Each structure stands twice: as C-alpha cells, then as structure tokens.
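Dear support,

I submitted the protein below through the web form. The confirmation email said the job was done, but the results page showed an empty box. After a refresh the structure appeared. I'm attaching both so you can tell me whether what I see now is the final result or a partial one.
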Amino acid sequence: MDLFQLIDEFRDAITTRVVETYPPLYEPGAEPLPLHKLKRKPMGRQGDAIGAVVHSLRRQRGTLLVGELGVGKTFIAASAAYLAGFDRILVVAPPHLVRKWSREVRDTVPGASTVIVRNITDLERLRTVERLPLFAILSRERAKLGYRWRPAVITRPLRQRARIVVDFETGDVLTGLCCPRCGHQILDPDGVPLDEKDLARKKTWCGHCGDALSQADRNGVRRVALAE
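What the results page shows now:
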C-alpha cells in the first residue's frame, strides 16, 4: 500500500486525529462578522478567511495569510484589518502592487484614506490625516532604501599559523582585505578572497566574527530608511 492509498483508506481516522491534536482556533460561522459593511461582498470562502484573520489579529499581531494567486489575499487582508478595528494600517508591498493595494482598499473599505508613501515628507503628512481608517502603502524597496554605505575593511599582512605569508618568488609580504574587528581575511563561502569591488556590490558580514563589513558613507545625500 502506497502513501496515497493509505491516506484514502484511513482518511476519516487521520482527519479526526489531526483535529484532536491541533484543534482549530476559529470555526467558520462561530463569530458572525459585519461583512455587510464592506463595499464589496466576499466571494466563496473569502468570508471565512476574513473571519479567521480577524480572529487571529485580535489574539495576536503576527498573522500569516497564505493563498494561491487570485484567491483575493489583498481583499481579505484589507477587510480583516478594517473589521478587526485597526484605524492606521501600514502596508509594505512589492513595488508593482502598491497602486493595486491603494485601489483595492478604496474599493473595499468604506471611508478609507489611502496614502502611497514615497519619502519622509509623506510620512510626516500622515500625522495630519483625520479621515480614518488610514492605509499607508509603502513599497518594500523604498522601505529599505537607506543611507549610502561603503566597505569597512583594513589591509594587513596575511598570516598562516601566526607567521606572515611571503611570496616565495619576490619575497614580498602578501596582504589582503581583513575584518577590522577580528583581523581575519575576508573570504567568500568557497574560501576565495574578496576584493573591494566584491564588497562594494552588496553588504557583507565577516564569516569569522559576524561583524558588518560596511559603514555609513557621509558623502553625498544622507537618507534614512523609511522602514525606520
């Protein structure tokens, strides 16, 4: 008997055991919600999903809504945040979905204000918005767009077993980029030494002590990440 046959033959017993071990925190229809307040009527099982998310949000702040493409996750999330009683909601979305979020919130939540946040000034203006609920929508790329940075490394003689490494042909002392905190040479996961171009391409951390190998660059425009 293969796995599919086993599940098919003992489906009821397996289901009963799973429910006994992991009892659901929300039963559809157990707590009626005023879904009629929404500007759009939920379709299919969207109403049950909204109810489950509302129940979870009231119990805890961390809630995961998982669904395939096209099931209406944006609609469900916006509806749940509204029905759970939140007045100010921050939405961090992929760049190509920012306008979709704004449109869907306006089409779903009665009397909602939507603001697409692009800079610090937009964030400051949110303080003056009196029309609630307020949905502040922020691109995840802009959220993490922060200060300029540059590699933070030192160049020092390489050592092997406490001895300085020397070029056998020229007798010159070999140097390399090292972590300014622990002094170990900076290597990639394969043990290949990294140069300054590699380090300038993306932020890197020391593989030995875990310290950041980047620092703020005060040259040019100074920025603060909107997420902060």
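Response: this is the final, complete result; the empty box was a page-load delay. DSSP finds eight helices and nine strands in the chain.
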